[in-house]
Protein backbone atom coordinates (compact mmCIF):
# COMPACT_ATOMS: atom_id res chain seq x y z
CA UNK A 1 0.00 0.00 0.00
CA UNK A 2 2.95 2.32 0.64
CA UNK A 3 3.89 2.04 -3.04
CA UNK A 4 0.33 2.92 -4.08
CA UNK A 5 0.64 6.17 -2.10
CA UNK A 6 3.80 6.92 -4.08
CA UNK A 7 1.76 6.57 -7.29
CA UNK A 8 -0.62 9.22 -5.95
CA UNK A 9 2.30 11.46 -4.95
CA UNK A 10 3.80 11.10 -8.44
CA UNK A 11 0.50 12.17 -10.00
CA UNK A 12 0.38 15.20 -7.72
CA UNK A 13 3.98 16.29 -8.36
CA UNK A 14 4.00 15.79 -12.12
CA UNK A 15 0.99 18.07 -12.45
CA UNK A 16 2.51 21.06 -10.66
CA UNK A 17 2.58 22.69 -14.08
CA UNK A 18 2.10 26.40 -13.38
CA UNK A 19 2.51 27.26 -17.06
CA UNK A 20 -0.63 25.43 -18.24
CA UNK A 21 -3.06 28.41 -18.16
CA UNK A 22 -0.68 30.77 -19.98
CA UNK A 23 1.26 28.49 -22.37
CA UNK A 24 -0.42 29.54 -25.64
CA UNK A 25 -0.46 33.21 -24.59
CA UNK A 26 3.27 32.81 -23.84
CA UNK A 27 3.83 31.57 -27.39
CA UNK A 28 1.77 34.44 -28.81
CA UNK A 29 3.65 36.94 -26.63
CA UNK A 30 6.85 35.79 -28.36
CA UNK A 31 5.23 36.63 -31.71
CA UNK A 32 4.12 33.17 -32.85
CA UNK A 33 0.96 32.63 -34.93
CA UNK A 34 -1.36 29.62 -34.71
CA UNK A 35 0.47 27.78 -37.50
CA UNK A 36 3.83 28.14 -35.70
CA UNK A 37 2.29 27.14 -32.38
CA UNK A 38 0.71 24.05 -33.90
CA UNK A 39 3.97 23.19 -35.66
CA UNK A 40 5.79 23.26 -32.31
CA UNK A 41 3.20 20.84 -30.97
CA UNK A 42 3.29 18.79 -34.19
CA UNK A 43 7.10 18.70 -34.20
CA UNK A 44 6.95 17.21 -30.73
CA UNK A 45 4.29 14.75 -31.90
CA UNK A 46 6.41 13.62 -34.87
CA UNK A 47 9.44 13.14 -32.61
CA UNK A 48 7.28 11.23 -30.13
CA UNK A 49 5.96 9.09 -32.99
CA UNK A 50 9.52 8.13 -34.01
CA UNK A 51 10.75 7.25 -30.51
CA UNK A 52 7.56 5.84 -28.94
CA UNK A 53 8.15 2.21 -29.86
CA UNK A 54 11.93 2.27 -29.15
CA UNK A 55 11.33 3.70 -25.66
CA UNK A 56 8.65 1.07 -25.04
CA UNK A 57 11.10 -1.65 -26.09
CA UNK A 58 13.74 -0.28 -23.73
CA UNK A 59 11.20 -0.32 -20.90
CA UNK A 60 10.22 -3.94 -21.55
CA UNK A 61 13.83 -5.12 -22.01
CA UNK A 62 15.67 -3.10 -19.37
CA UNK A 63 12.90 -2.46 -16.85
CA UNK A 64 9.88 -0.20 -16.53
CA UNK A 65 11.14 1.44 -13.33
CA UNK A 66 14.41 2.57 -14.95
CA UNK A 67 12.48 4.03 -17.87
CA UNK A 68 10.18 5.99 -15.56
CA UNK A 69 13.15 7.41 -13.62
CA UNK A 70 14.82 8.54 -16.87
CA UNK A 71 11.54 10.09 -18.00
CA UNK A 72 11.14 12.27 -14.95
CA UNK A 73 14.75 13.47 -15.05
CA UNK A 74 14.33 14.47 -18.71
CA UNK A 75 11.05 16.31 -18.07
CA UNK A 76 12.73 18.37 -15.33
CA UNK A 77 15.42 19.44 -17.81
CA UNK A 78 12.73 20.25 -20.40
CA UNK A 79 11.01 22.71 -18.05
CA UNK A 80 14.32 24.47 -17.49
CA UNK A 81 14.84 24.62 -21.29
CA UNK A 82 11.40 26.25 -21.72
CA UNK A 83 12.39 28.83 -19.13
CA UNK A 84 15.38 29.87 -21.26
CA UNK A 85 13.48 29.74 -24.59
CA UNK A 86 12.93 32.94 -26.54
CA UNK A 87 11.59 32.05 -29.99
CA UNK A 88 10.27 29.37 -32.33
CA UNK A 89 13.41 27.19 -32.57
CA UNK A 90 14.30 27.26 -28.87
CA UNK A 91 10.68 26.47 -27.98
CA UNK A 92 10.71 23.61 -30.49
CA UNK A 93 13.90 22.17 -28.97
CA UNK A 94 12.47 22.43 -25.44
CA UNK A 95 9.31 20.68 -26.60
CA UNK A 96 11.34 17.87 -28.21
CA UNK A 97 13.12 17.32 -24.90
CA UNK A 98 9.77 17.28 -23.13
CA UNK A 99 8.38 14.74 -25.59
CA UNK A 100 11.44 12.55 -25.06
CA UNK A 101 10.71 12.49 -21.36
CA UNK A 102 7.03 11.75 -21.93
CA UNK A 103 7.85 8.90 -24.33
CA UNK A 104 9.89 7.10 -21.68
CA UNK A 105 6.87 7.40 -19.37
CA UNK A 106 3.90 6.88 -21.72
CA UNK A 107 2.57 3.36 -21.58
CA UNK A 108 5.44 2.39 -19.27
CA UNK A 109 4.12 4.00 -16.09
CA UNK A 110 0.63 2.58 -16.53
CA UNK A 111 2.17 -0.83 -17.32
CA UNK A 112 4.34 -0.66 -14.18
CA UNK A 113 1.32 0.25 -12.05
CA UNK A 114 -0.82 -2.49 -13.61
CA UNK A 115 1.90 -5.12 -13.04
CA UNK A 116 2.52 -3.95 -9.47
CA UNK A 117 -1.19 -4.18 -8.61
CA UNK A 118 -1.36 -7.65 -10.20
CA UNK A 119 1.59 -8.69 -8.03
CA UNK A 120 0.25 -7.20 -4.78
CA UNK A 121 -3.02 -9.04 -4.14
CA UNK A 122 -3.91 -6.72 -1.25
CA UNK A 123 -3.66 -3.60 -3.40
CA UNK A 124 -6.76 -1.84 -4.83
CA UNK A 125 -7.98 -2.51 -8.38
CA UNK A 126 -6.37 -0.83 -11.39
CA UNK A 127 -9.33 1.39 -12.30
CA UNK A 128 -9.64 2.56 -8.69
CA UNK A 129 -5.94 3.46 -8.51
CA UNK A 130 -5.99 5.22 -11.90
CA UNK A 131 -9.13 7.12 -10.94
CA UNK A 132 -7.50 8.29 -7.68
CA UNK A 133 -4.35 9.20 -9.59
CA UNK A 134 -6.50 11.36 -11.83
CA UNK A 135 -8.06 12.88 -8.72
CA UNK A 136 -4.69 13.88 -7.29
CA UNK A 137 -3.50 15.02 -10.72
CA UNK A 138 -6.46 17.34 -11.18
CA UNK A 139 -6.20 18.57 -7.58
CA UNK A 140 -2.52 19.37 -8.15
CA UNK A 141 -3.25 21.06 -11.47
CA UNK A 142 -5.97 23.15 -9.84
CA UNK A 143 -3.49 24.49 -7.29
CA UNK A 144 -0.74 25.13 -9.86
CA UNK A 145 -3.03 26.72 -12.44
CA UNK A 146 -4.69 28.98 -9.86
CA UNK A 147 -1.24 30.44 -9.22
CA UNK A 148 0.02 30.29 -12.81
CA UNK A 149 -1.70 33.39 -14.16
CA UNK A 150 -0.59 35.56 -11.24
CA UNK A 151 2.99 34.22 -11.45
CA UNK A 152 3.09 35.04 -15.18
CA UNK A 153 1.77 38.58 -14.70
CA UNK A 154 4.00 39.50 -11.75
CA UNK A 155 7.17 37.43 -12.39
CA UNK A 156 7.13 36.89 -16.16
CA UNK A 157 6.26 33.96 -18.42
CA UNK A 158 9.70 32.33 -18.39
CA UNK A 159 9.91 32.29 -14.59
CA UNK A 160 6.81 30.11 -14.42
CA UNK A 161 8.72 27.26 -16.10
CA UNK A 162 11.64 27.50 -13.65
CA UNK A 163 9.17 27.25 -10.76
CA UNK A 164 7.54 24.19 -12.37
CA UNK A 165 10.94 22.48 -12.56
CA UNK A 166 11.15 22.32 -8.73
CA UNK A 167 8.30 19.80 -8.09
CA UNK A 168 9.37 17.94 -11.26
CA UNK A 169 12.80 17.43 -9.66
CA UNK A 170 11.19 16.18 -6.44
CA UNK A 171 9.10 13.76 -8.51
CA UNK A 172 12.29 12.38 -10.05
CA UNK A 173 13.82 11.89 -6.61
CA UNK A 174 10.80 10.13 -5.12
CA UNK A 175 10.61 7.76 -8.11
CA UNK A 176 14.05 6.47 -7.14
CA UNK A 177 12.35 4.90 -4.08
CA UNK A 178 9.78 2.89 -6.10
CA UNK A 179 9.91 -0.85 -5.47
CA UNK A 180 11.29 -3.27 -8.03
CA UNK A 181 8.70 -5.59 -9.54
CA UNK A 182 9.00 -8.98 -11.20
CA UNK A 183 9.00 -8.44 -14.93
CA UNK A 184 10.20 -10.00 -18.13
CA UNK A 185 13.69 -9.01 -19.22
CA UNK A 186 14.72 -10.28 -22.63
CA UNK A 187 18.04 -10.33 -24.40
CA UNK A 188 19.32 -6.91 -25.45
CA UNK A 189 19.25 -7.83 -29.12
CA UNK A 190 17.96 -5.60 -31.97
CA UNK A 191 16.62 -8.49 -34.04
CA UNK A 192 14.79 -9.95 -31.06
CA UNK A 193 13.41 -6.50 -30.23
CA UNK A 194 12.08 -6.15 -33.79
CA UNK A 195 10.37 -9.53 -33.50
CA UNK A 196 8.99 -8.49 -30.10
CA UNK A 197 7.39 -5.36 -31.57
CA UNK A 198 6.07 -7.28 -34.59
CA UNK A 199 4.45 -9.85 -32.30
CA UNK A 200 2.95 -7.06 -30.18
CA UNK A 201 1.46 -5.32 -33.24
CA UNK A 202 0.13 -8.65 -34.53
CA UNK A 203 -1.52 -9.46 -31.19
CA UNK A 204 -3.16 -6.02 -31.18
CA UNK A 205 -4.45 -6.46 -34.74
CA UNK A 206 -5.83 -9.93 -33.97
CA UNK A 207 -7.65 -8.76 -30.85
CA UNK A 208 -11.37 -8.19 -31.38
CA UNK A 209 -11.51 -5.12 -29.16
CA UNK A 210 -8.17 -3.32 -29.38
CA UNK A 211 -8.31 -1.80 -32.91
CA UNK A 212 -11.63 -0.11 -32.14
CA UNK A 213 -10.41 1.21 -28.79
CA UNK A 214 -7.21 2.56 -30.39
CA UNK A 215 -9.07 4.36 -33.21
CA UNK A 216 -11.54 5.84 -30.75
CA UNK A 217 -8.73 7.10 -28.51
CA UNK A 218 -6.73 8.35 -31.52
CA UNK A 219 -9.48 10.70 -32.72
CA UNK A 220 -10.74 11.86 -29.33
CA UNK A 221 -7.26 12.60 -27.97
CA UNK A 222 -6.21 14.45 -31.13
CA UNK A 223 -9.34 16.60 -31.00
CA UNK A 224 -8.77 17.27 -27.30
CA UNK A 225 -5.16 18.41 -27.86
CA UNK A 226 -6.24 20.75 -30.68
CA UNK A 227 -9.15 22.12 -28.65
CA UNK A 228 -6.94 22.75 -25.60
CA UNK A 229 -4.79 25.06 -27.74
CA UNK A 230 -7.78 27.33 -28.35
CA UNK A 231 -8.93 27.68 -24.72
CA UNK A 232 -6.61 30.54 -23.75
CA UNK A 233 -7.16 32.68 -26.88
CA UNK A 234 -10.92 32.13 -26.38
CA UNK A 235 -10.74 33.35 -22.77
CA UNK A 236 -8.86 36.41 -24.01
CA UNK A 237 -11.58 37.11 -26.61
CA UNK A 238 -14.23 36.63 -23.91
CA UNK A 239 -12.62 39.50 -21.96
CA UNK A 240 -11.15 37.53 -19.04
CA UNK A 241 -8.00 39.17 -17.49
CA UNK A 242 -4.84 37.07 -17.90
CA UNK A 243 -4.14 36.75 -14.17
CA UNK A 244 -7.52 35.03 -13.71
CA UNK A 245 -6.95 32.43 -16.44
CA UNK A 246 -5.44 30.09 -13.85
CA UNK A 247 -8.32 30.65 -11.41
CA UNK A 248 -10.80 29.54 -14.07
CA UNK A 249 -8.64 26.51 -14.93
CA UNK A 250 -8.37 25.69 -11.24
CA UNK A 251 -12.11 25.78 -10.62
CA UNK A 252 -12.87 23.35 -13.40
CA UNK A 253 -9.94 21.10 -12.48
CA UNK A 254 -11.29 20.76 -8.94
CA UNK A 255 -14.61 19.65 -10.40
CA UNK A 256 -12.75 17.24 -12.71
CA UNK A 257 -10.76 15.85 -9.77
CA UNK A 258 -13.90 14.92 -7.84
CA UNK A 259 -15.83 13.63 -10.85
CA UNK A 260 -12.93 11.44 -11.98
CA UNK A 261 -12.98 9.59 -8.67
CA UNK A 262 -16.39 8.23 -9.68
CA UNK A 263 -15.25 6.81 -13.03
CA UNK A 264 -14.67 3.38 -11.47
CA UNK A 265 -18.21 3.47 -10.04
CA UNK A 266 -19.63 4.30 -13.46
CA UNK A 267 -17.61 1.48 -15.01
CA UNK A 268 -18.84 -1.05 -12.44
CA UNK A 269 -22.47 0.02 -12.77
CA UNK A 270 -22.82 0.47 -16.54
CA UNK A 271 -19.74 -1.19 -18.02
CA UNK A 272 -16.65 0.48 -19.51
CA UNK A 273 -17.73 0.43 -23.20
CA UNK A 274 -21.15 1.98 -22.50
CA UNK A 275 -19.70 4.77 -20.34
CA UNK A 276 -16.97 5.49 -22.90
CA UNK A 277 -19.49 5.68 -25.78
CA UNK A 278 -21.89 7.91 -23.84
CA UNK A 279 -19.16 10.35 -22.81
CA UNK A 280 -17.92 10.60 -26.40
CA UNK A 281 -21.44 11.48 -27.61
CA UNK A 282 -21.86 14.10 -24.88
CA UNK A 283 -18.71 15.92 -26.04
CA UNK A 284 -20.38 16.72 -29.39
CA UNK A 285 -22.87 19.24 -27.95
CA UNK A 286 -20.48 21.84 -26.43
CA UNK A 287 -18.13 21.56 -29.42
CA UNK A 288 -20.86 22.45 -31.94
CA UNK A 289 -22.05 25.39 -29.80
CA UNK A 290 -18.49 26.78 -29.75
CA UNK A 291 -17.99 25.95 -33.41
CA UNK A 292 -20.88 28.22 -34.38
CA UNK A 293 -18.99 31.19 -32.89
CA UNK A 294 -20.52 31.51 -29.44
CA UNK A 295 -18.26 33.81 -27.34
CA UNK A 296 -18.87 34.54 -23.65
CA UNK A 297 -17.69 33.60 -20.19
CA UNK A 298 -20.28 30.80 -20.30
CA UNK A 299 -18.55 29.53 -23.43
CA UNK A 300 -15.38 29.04 -21.37
CA UNK A 301 -17.38 26.52 -19.37
CA UNK A 302 -18.19 24.61 -22.56
CA UNK A 303 -14.47 24.21 -23.27
CA UNK A 304 -13.89 22.79 -19.83
CA UNK A 305 -16.91 20.50 -20.09
CA UNK A 306 -14.99 18.63 -22.79
CA UNK A 307 -12.01 18.59 -20.39
CA UNK A 308 -14.22 16.90 -17.77
CA UNK A 309 -15.34 14.31 -20.30
CA UNK A 310 -11.74 13.47 -21.25
CA UNK A 311 -10.82 13.01 -17.59
CA UNK A 312 -13.74 10.64 -17.02
CA UNK A 313 -12.90 8.65 -20.17
CA UNK A 314 -9.19 8.24 -19.48
CA UNK A 315 -9.07 5.67 -16.62
CA UNK A 316 -11.83 3.61 -18.24
CA UNK A 317 -10.01 3.66 -21.59
CA UNK A 318 -6.77 2.52 -19.93
CA UNK A 319 -8.55 -0.36 -18.20
CA UNK A 320 -10.25 -1.54 -21.40
CA UNK A 321 -6.93 -1.41 -23.25
CA UNK A 322 -4.76 -3.15 -20.65
CA UNK A 323 -7.27 -5.95 -20.17
CA UNK A 324 -6.60 -6.97 -23.77
CA UNK A 325 -2.77 -7.23 -23.57
CA UNK A 326 -0.27 -9.52 -21.83
CA UNK A 327 2.11 -8.41 -19.09
CA UNK A 328 5.16 -9.51 -21.11
CA UNK A 329 4.60 -6.75 -23.68
CA UNK A 330 2.31 -4.40 -21.79
CA UNK A 331 4.75 -1.48 -21.88
CA UNK A 332 5.33 -1.92 -25.62
CA UNK A 333 1.57 -2.22 -26.19
CA UNK A 334 1.06 0.96 -24.18
CA UNK A 335 3.65 2.66 -26.36
CA UNK A 336 1.76 1.46 -29.45
CA UNK A 337 -1.39 3.13 -28.09
CA UNK A 338 0.55 6.35 -27.47
CA UNK A 339 2.05 6.08 -30.96
CA UNK A 340 -1.39 5.95 -32.54
CA UNK A 341 -2.51 8.90 -30.42
CA UNK A 342 0.50 10.80 -31.71
CA UNK A 343 -0.12 9.84 -35.34
CA UNK A 344 -3.56 11.40 -35.13
CA UNK A 345 -2.08 14.64 -33.81
CA UNK A 346 0.54 14.73 -36.57
CA UNK A 347 -2.23 14.70 -39.16
CA UNK A 348 -4.77 16.93 -37.41
CA UNK A 349 -2.77 19.69 -35.70
CA UNK A 350 -1.09 21.35 -38.73
CA UNK A 351 -4.48 21.42 -40.49
CA UNK A 352 -6.15 23.03 -37.47
CA UNK A 353 -3.34 25.59 -37.21
CA UNK A 354 -3.79 26.56 -40.86
CA UNK A 355 -7.60 26.75 -40.53
CA UNK A 356 -7.34 28.93 -37.39
CA UNK A 357 -4.94 31.38 -39.11
CA UNK A 358 -6.74 31.42 -42.48
CA UNK A 359 -10.31 31.49 -41.12
CA UNK A 360 -10.88 31.44 -37.35
CA UNK A 361 -10.59 29.24 -34.31
CA UNK A 362 -14.36 28.72 -34.51
CA UNK A 363 -14.14 27.15 -37.95
CA UNK A 364 -11.45 24.84 -36.58
CA UNK A 365 -13.62 23.92 -33.57
CA UNK A 366 -16.57 23.17 -35.87
CA UNK A 367 -14.38 20.68 -37.78
CA UNK A 368 -13.32 19.12 -34.46
CA UNK A 369 -16.98 18.75 -33.49
CA UNK A 370 -17.68 16.89 -36.74
CA UNK A 371 -14.80 14.48 -36.01
CA UNK A 372 -16.18 13.68 -32.55
CA UNK A 373 -19.65 13.18 -34.04
CA UNK A 374 -18.09 10.70 -36.48
CA UNK A 375 -16.37 8.89 -33.61
CA UNK A 376 -19.55 8.70 -31.53
CA UNK A 377 -21.64 7.37 -34.42
CA UNK A 378 -19.20 4.96 -36.10
CA UNK A 379 -16.22 4.16 -33.85
CA UNK A 380 -18.17 3.28 -30.72
CA UNK A 381 -16.89 0.43 -28.55
CA UNK A 382 -18.94 -2.74 -28.79
CA UNK A 383 -19.23 -4.46 -25.37
CA UNK A 384 -19.07 -7.96 -26.92
CA UNK A 385 -15.65 -7.30 -28.47
CA UNK A 386 -13.78 -6.46 -25.25
CA UNK A 387 -12.87 -8.50 -22.18
CA UNK A 388 -14.73 -7.56 -18.99
DSSP, total strands: 0
Q: What is the CATH topology descriptor? A: Growth Hormone, Chain: A
Secondary structural class: mainly alpha
Q: How much of the residues is beta strand, in percent?
A: under 5%
Describe the structure.
The mean pLDDT is 82. The protein is built from 17 helices and no strands. It has helices at 2-14, 23-29, 34-62, 64-84, 88-105, 108-119, 126-155, 157-175, 190-206, 210-237, 245-260, 263-270, 272-282, 284-291, 297-322, 330-358, 361-378. It has one domain (2-385): Growth Hormone, Chain: A. The protein has 388 residues and is mainly α.
Question: How would you summarize the topology of this molecule?
Answer:
Elements lengths: L1 H13 L8 H7 L4 H29 L1 H21 L3 H18 L2 H12 L6 H30 L1 H19 L14 H17 L3 H28 L7 H16 L2 H8 L1 H11 L1 H8 L5 H26 L7 H29 L2 H18 L10
What is this entry, summarized?
With 388 residues, the protein is mainly alpha-helical. The chain is 80% helix and 0% strand.
Features:
mainly alpha; Growth Hormone, Chain: A; globular; 388 residues
